[in-house]
Amino acid sequence: MQTEFLEEARRQAEICNACRYCEGYCSVFPALHAERAFSDGDLTQLANLCHNCRGCYYACQYTAPHEFALNLPQALANVRQDSWEEFAFPRAAGQAFQKSGLRIALATVLGFALLIWAMLSLASAGGEGFYAVLAHNTMVAIFLPAFLFPLLSLAISLRRYWRAVGAGPLRFSDLRGGFAAAANMRNLNGGHGDGCNFEDEDRFSQGRRFAHQAVMYGFLLCFAATSVATLMHYLLDLRAPYPLWSLPKLLGLSGGLLLTLGCIEMIRLKLRADPELGASGATSGEFGFVALLGFVGLSGLALYGLGQTPLMPAMLALHLGAVLAFFLLTPFSKMAHGFYRLAALTADAQKKREVAR
């Protein structure tokens, strides 16, 4: 990891540890105040606990032009971004996406869409609905490896992270604590429950928390729709296409709406936020991830609306290209931050348990 990022984060963490004004703001500060000296692993853990709500920056009396020039959100964001690149498997892919994420996402979606369009043009599947242009078994053959690769890559990355922060053997109670903190995103609720200052220093808002929840639960609903449809296909011999009031359709449509609206709101919030409080040079990677995820949801909804029209094959190719790109890029995009943050919250729960003994 880059030494200058770690050293700057260490300098600021030591000043914050002496001040303690922001003690109740989020999970970062209790963890920070529990230490007297900060190893590289400690700083990596603090950085991944940080949700970049920026409340501490706007409350701080030592920001520039003070000689201390504290900017803890940016210092931790730089370490956090660097840790994702360092732990990514393979590392070169993680570094490339963070620097040119928007271009890589666009090129990958279009490339896969053209490839799938060529497949659709060469053969007729002879089924119903979408399967009239692309057979179910062909979809499975394409997407199963694309689904398994990110799981393997993320497992290796999270193992590297767990070792780097010095976390011990995992217990179910620790994992439960991490999932509970991630599920309600309480660290985006601000130090006093009024929300965070991500958009404007003088305005507290729950908008960023709600946008993140919409994206997270929208994605989980879409994943649940695919899982339910797979079980219905293979275990119950109920073949797609499914009617509107079927469980896969209800889950997929509600998930697609949440995912699309959540991503639109996240982009709006990012455009309003101060870029000097985020990671240096990470704008392309962040917007590339949110745009790709939002397009997956939007193209899925468009595909449903165009399912009975001549535009369906082209829309299917575009949507499947986006889904394929999303899965393959997940370990290197900001989608991975959800897994790192869950690992950080779990490690934090583990440390609290050990201190309480």
Query: What is the averaged pLDDT score?
Result: 85
The neighbouring-strand order within the major sheet is: 1-2
Which term fits the overall shape? Answer: elongated
Strand content: under 5%
**Helix count, DSSP H or I runs of 4 or more residues:** 13
Percent in helix: 55-70%
Q: Name the poorly predicted regions.
A: none
The sequence of SSEs as H and E is HHHHHHHHEEHHHHH
How many domains in all?
A: 1
Q: Which structural class is indicated by helix and strand composition?
A: mainly alpha
What Rg do the Cα atoms give?
A: 22 Å
Largest sheet: 2 strands, antiparallel
Total beta strand runs: 2
* Terminal-residue CA separation: 33 Å
InterPro entries: Citrate_utilization_prot_B (IPR012830), NarG-like_sf (IPR036197)
Organism: Thioclava nitratireducens
Transmembrane segments: 104-123, 129-154, 214-235, 247-267, 287-306, 312-332
Protein name: 4Fe-4S ferredoxin
Structure report:
68% of the residues lie in helices and 2% in strands. The protein has 357 residues and is mainly alpha-helical. The protein has one domain. The mean pLDDT is 85. Helix 1 packs across helix 5 (72-87). The chain has a two-stranded antiparallel ribbon with strand order 1-2. The protein has helices at residues 3-19, 28-33, 40-49, 55-59, 72-87, 91-122, 136-164, 172-184, 207-234, 247-272, 283-305, 312-329, 336-356; strands at residues 196-200, 203-205. The radius of gyration is 22 Å and the shape is elongated. The longest helix has 32 residues, at 91-122. A hairpin with a 2-residue loop joins strand 1 and strand 2 (203-205).
